[in-house]
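User: Could you go from structure to sequence for me? I need the amino acid at each position, not a summary. Structure tokens:
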């Protein structure tokens, strides 16, 4: 088994037309854009669209440059040779960062030529990379709650945050049949975000993360959702849970490992007009045409390196995309330019 083709497959996303499954909206001919159904976007995120897109491209470009570099490939070959010599199947490294790091550390200590800060950082990156599966989907482990509908309110940050918390709780339970906790996005948006978040403009992922980490969350039954601006009600008898913490993530491998362990992350994307009517039949979305509409927050629940894409959960109901889910190309439209992950304490 060789890791090299699987690892280098992510290089394909850097150029359009290199085997990438591009999305074309149904009924759209060349040069003509079909006006699609409008969904709510987050203008607070949209105001930072250029920054988010630049960060997304840079993060993915840095990752591609790293895994295609000579030092990374040299260390990767050393890991493969070590596993072959010691009869360790490379598949045993997937999901086992302890074993992988022990092998990499052994290689590092046995070769004087492999020294220095850069080498140690690359060694760590190799260990993270080879211990990841080529594809992962939290739905297959029953770590994903049903897709919901935010309606006409720009409350996507609250829905994406709730989705991540729900997945993290399911992942931490270690049981496939546990009843999911349904988190109240209304509480996150209208109570924790009171005076800041609003249905017209939206909210910020990082601000929501700080508030949830500090104040916790309540279940949906304590504050049912309606897609209009609401005051925060008195919630007598509702238990506020504070067993959640948030983490900022900046590295592709770290993001994937977080999803692998906790089920999801929250990230922002930039919405263009063709996104409104995209992503049917599990097609991978890449921007083709249409004007900038704003920003959007979604929960990412997996990836597939053979498709060079992230798997995400939206909050525009199950009638959008593929039953409410969608694939988006690596480095596309700001994906992973800003990332927060929620995990249990």
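Assistant: Here is the amino acid at each position, in order:
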């Amino acid at each position: 088994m060789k890791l090299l083709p699987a690892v280098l497959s992510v290089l394909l996303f850097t150029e359009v037309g290199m085997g990438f499954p591009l999305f074309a909206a149904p009924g759209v001919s060349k040069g003509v854009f079909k006006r699609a159904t409008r969904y709510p976007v987050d203008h607070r995120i949209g105001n930072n669209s250029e920054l988010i897109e630049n960060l997304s491209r840079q993060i993915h470009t840095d990752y591609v440059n790293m895994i295609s570099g000579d030092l990374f490939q040299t260390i990767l070959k050393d890991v493969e040779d070590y596993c072959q010599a010691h009869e360790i199947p490379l598949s045993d490294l997937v999901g086992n960062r302890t074993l992988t790091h022990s092998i990499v550390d052994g290689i590092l200590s046995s070769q004087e030529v492999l020294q220095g800060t850069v080498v140690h950082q690359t060694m760590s990156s190799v260990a993270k990379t080879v211990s990841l599966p080529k594809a992962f989907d939290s739905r297959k482990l029953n770590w994903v709650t049903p897709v919901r509908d935010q309606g006409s309110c720009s409350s996507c940050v609250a829905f994406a945050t709730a989705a991540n918390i729900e997945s993290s709780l399911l992942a931490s339970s270690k049981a496939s049949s546990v009843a999911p906790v349904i988190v109240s996005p209304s509480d996150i948006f209208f109570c924790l975000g009171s005076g800041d978040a609003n249905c017209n403009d939206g909210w910020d992922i990082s601000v929501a993360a700080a508030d949830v980490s500090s104040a916790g969350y309540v279940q949906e039954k304590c504050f049912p959702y309606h897609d209009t601006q609401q005051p925060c009600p008195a919630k007598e008898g509702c238990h506020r849970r504070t067993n959640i913490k948030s983490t900022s993530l900046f590295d592709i491998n770290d993001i994937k490992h977080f999803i692998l362990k906790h089920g999801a992350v929250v990230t922002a994307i930039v919405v263009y007009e063709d996104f409104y009517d995209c992503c049917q039949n599990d097609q991978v979305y890449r921007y083709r045409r249409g004007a900038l509409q704003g920003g959007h927050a979604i929960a990412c629940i997996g990836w597939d390196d053979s498709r060079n894409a992230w798997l995400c959960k939206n909050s525009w109901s199950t009638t959008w995309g593929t039953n409410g889910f969608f694939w988006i190309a690596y480095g596309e439209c700001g994906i992973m330019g800003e990332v927060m992950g929620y995990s249990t304490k």
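One structural detail worth keeping in mind: The domain at 135-344 is CATH 3.90.70.10 (Cathepsin B; Chain A).
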